Structure formats: C-alpha cells, structure tokens
C-alpha cells in the first residue's frame, strides 16, 4: 500500500512523503528510520494513485543506470547531474534532478541531497550512497544496488509469470461457462418446455440455473464490472488479503517464508558490503518484511545489540532455515557475513524457483482438467434429455 506521511524534518520544516508499506505502522517506522518526526500517516486512495500522471513517477532504476554510466565515463558528480538535467524533458523528473544538483552546489553531500527526496529514494538507496561516500566507490556501490534490485525483480517476475497462465485459464473457463449458462442453456430450456417431457433432476436444475442467469444478465454484468473495478482500485488491500489467506495454507506459508528470507538476506548482504554495520542494517530492512516477521526481526536485532551472535539471534527468532542457520555460522567463523548472506539468498531463490516451476507444471493440467470437467458436465446435462428420447425411440 502507498501511505502519505507528514513529518517534521530539521532545517526544512514539515515535509510530505509517499511511502510503500504493508500498513500505517510500517510507513511510520520507515519515516522515523530517516530521522523524521512523524506527524500523521494515512493511506493514499488507489483512485488518486491511478489518476496520477505517469510522468510524476521518478524512474529510479533508469536514473541509477545513467548515473553509473556517466560517472564511469569520467564525469564528476555535479557534471553528471547537470548533464542529466539538460537532457531531461519530463517536468517532474527534471525538477528533482535540478534540486539534487542545487544541493551539491550548496556544499551538501550526495546522500544528503538524496535524503531531501524520501518519497523518491528509499532508505536503502540513501544508505548505500552514504556508505560509498566513506570509501569513494560511488559507481560500484550504485552498480551493486542495481544488481540487487534486478535480482529481486527476477524472483518477483518468475512468480508473476507463473501465475499468468492459470489466471488466463480461469478467466476463459469462467467466460465459457457463463456463455453456456446464460445463452445456450436457456435456448435448450425453451425447446424442452415445448416438448412437455419430464426431465432428469440434474438437467432440470441446470436449466433453472440457466434461466436465472439469463433473466438477471444485466445485474450479473454490473456485478462483474463492479468486481473488476474493486480489484483494480483495491489492489494493495486485495494483495494483503490474499497473502493472509496464503499464510493459512501450510505449504504456501513455508514457501512465503523462504521468499521473505531471501529478500531479507540479500538486502542485508548488500548493506554489509556497503560498509553498514549489522545493527543499523537490521533496522533498515524491517520495512521489507510482513508484520509477523518484522516482530521476529525486532527480537533478533535486540539480541544482536546485546552481544548475541547473528546466527544464534536469527535462528532463535525463527528467521532461518536449517541451511541458512548453518551458512550463517560459517559466515561468522570466516568473517565474510556479506558474502554468506548473498549465498543464502541465492540458495533460497533457486529453491523457490524450482518449487514455482514444479507447482505450475502440476497445477496447470489439474486446472485445465477441472475446467474441462465443468464445461463437459454442462454440455452432457443439456443433451441428456435428447439422449433419453433417442433411447426411448430406439
């Protein structure tokens, strides 16, 4: 969900942020992590987000890619931003770039300039840049962030692409079923009514359903349109409801845990590699997790702050799998926690990809068989009286 947060920022007064979060409490935590005093937080209605022009959305991935390319070409950071301002035609994007350039000319660091636009640049993005300013490897740090973002998108795209075909099957099967019940079945009902023959019970029930749908076709059409509109405008809330329902299924709950743990460890690895210590890094990644896992992460963070090892704290909070727990212990012994967390994320990504592939190969044939069975049953029940009539004549 997208939340509009009003907060007090030193030297700037009251600022308004647009943050992506699971709930208002998560949005407030994200704002406080950026050093802001939160005044209010309310969910932005989907209508406003839907009607907002696309030009007002700042393209962070494209900005980062161009920034890295120009910096590696030998341009200084002010020259790079000046070049990007000159070439940009979109008003809103040009305004943000110009403000970043002006902050640099005022003597502020790049991370401080980015922090003035929290509605555009996430806490992770600003933290990555701030860490690179201490080491002087801004292009490499931004390249790592791009790679991190692409890997997260890869897993998300695999899950989305795997769900497209079943969704299309369900839509097509539903439309065919409605066509049969609302158009074809009432025609057969009129024919059988004129014949005056007694019909089998199941066929009679099918014909009654067909006549009901045909008589209420306008109401049914309005209901379908209303459901589609509700799905569009209540998209984030619908996703949250679906995730809660999925968490109640044991098999899906374990796979969702693997997905969230992969995101958690990949983000932690990226932050640790950028020079951020483990306790601030744990606080930064809290917004990536759902509320139940965020509470576990708070427990783990508190134990790490008390001096407990990362592997023990994460395992005690239920934020590891058996493989991840062993790999974390190896990382602690070798001193390469960042690299080990990347390996944990890659292992879980591969595991999740294999499960998604297996599930789609099993689910798609079952779904096709179910749709075929429903349509076939409708056709058979429509023609059953004709079959009986032919048998009686024979």
Task: Explain the overall architecture.
With 394 residues, this protein is mainly alpha-helical. The protein has 2 domains: 1-44; 138-394, Type II secretion system (T2SS), domain F (Receptor-associated Protein). It has helices at residues 24-33, 46-51, 60-72, 77-87, 91-105, 110-115, 123-135, 138-195, 201-215, 217-233, 235-247, 250-273, 278-284, 291-305, 310-316, 322-334, 337-393; strands at 2-9, 13-20, 37-43. It has a 3-stranded antiparallel β-sheet, covered by helices on one side. Strand 1 (2-9) and strand 2 (13-20) form a beta hairpin. Helix 3 packs antiparallel against helix 8 (138-195), helix 8 (138-195) packs antiparallel against helix 12 (250-273) and helix 12 packs antiparallel against helix 17 (337-393). The chain is elongated and about 90 Å long. The N and C termini lie far apart (66 Å). The relative contact order is 0.09.
The largest sheet, given as strand count, sense and whether it forms a barrel, is: 3 strands, antiparallel
Order of helices and strands: EEHEHHHHHHHHHHHHHHHH
CATH topology of the largest domain: Receptor-associated Protein
Distance between the termini: 66 Å
Arrangement of strands in the largest sheet: 2-1-3
CATH class of the largest domain: Mainly Alpha
- Proportion of residues in helical segments: over 70%
Query: What would you say the CATH architecture of the largest domain is?
Result: Up-down Bundle
Q: Tell me the radius of gyration.
A: 28 Å
Mean pLDDT over all positions: 81
Structure summary, number of beta strands? 3
Count the DSSP helices: 17
Beta-strand content bin: 5-15%
Structural class: mainly alpha
* CATH H-level superfamily of the largest domain: Type II secretion system (T2SS), domain F
Anisotropy-based shape: elongated
Q: How many separate domains make up the residues?
A: 2
Taking pLDDT < 50 over at least 5 consecutive residues as the criterion, the unreliable ranges are 46-55
């Amino acid at each position: 969900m997208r939340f509009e947060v009003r907060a007090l920022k030193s030297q700037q007064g009251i600022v308004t942020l647009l943050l992506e979060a699971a709930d208002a409490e998560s949005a407030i935590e994200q704002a406080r992590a950026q050093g802001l005093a939160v005044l209010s937080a309310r969910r932005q209605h989907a209508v406003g987000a839907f009607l907002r022009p696309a030009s007002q959305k700042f393209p962070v991935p494209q900005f980062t890619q161009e920034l890295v390319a120009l910096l590696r070409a030998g341009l200084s950071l002010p020259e790079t931003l000046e070049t990007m301002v000159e070439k940009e035609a979109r008003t809103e994007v040009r305004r943000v770039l110009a403000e970043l350039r002006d902050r640099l000319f005022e003597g502020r660091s790049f991370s401080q300039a980015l922090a003035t636009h929290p509605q555009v640049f996430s806490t992770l993005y600003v933290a990555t840049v701030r860490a690179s300013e201490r080491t002087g490897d801004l292009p490499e740090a931004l390249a790592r962030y791009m790679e991190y973002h692409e890997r997260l998108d890869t897993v998300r795209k695999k899950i989305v692409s795997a769900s497209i075909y079943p969704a299309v099957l369900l839509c097509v099967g539903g439309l065919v079923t409605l066509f049969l019940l609302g158009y074809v079945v009432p025609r057969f009902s009129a024919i059988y009514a004129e014949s005056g023959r007694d019909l089998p019970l199941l066929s009679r029930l099918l014909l009654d359903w067909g006549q009901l749908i045909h008589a209420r076709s306008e109401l049914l059409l309005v209901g379908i349109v209303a459901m589609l509109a509700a799905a569009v405008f209540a998209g984030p809330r619908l996703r949250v409801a679906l995730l809660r329902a999925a968490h109640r299924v044991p098999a899906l709950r374990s796979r969702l845990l693997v997905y969230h743990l992969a995101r958690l460890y990949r983000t932690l690895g990226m932050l640790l590699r950028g020079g951020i210590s483990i306790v601030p890094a744990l606080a930064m990644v809290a917004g990536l997790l759902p509320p139940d896992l965020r509470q576990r992460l708070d427990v783990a963070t508190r134990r790490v702050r008390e001096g407990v090892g990362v592997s023990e704290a994460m395992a005690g909070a239920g934020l590891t799998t058996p493989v991840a727990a062993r790999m974390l212990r190896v990382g602690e012994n070798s001193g390469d926690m960042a690299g080990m967390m990347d390996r944990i994320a890659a292992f879980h990504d591969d595991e999740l990809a294999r499960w998604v592939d297996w599930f789609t190969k099993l689910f798609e044939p079952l779904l096709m068989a179910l749709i075929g069975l429903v349509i076939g049953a409708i056709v058979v029940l429509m023609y059953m009286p004709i079959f009986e009539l032919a048998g009686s004549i024979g």
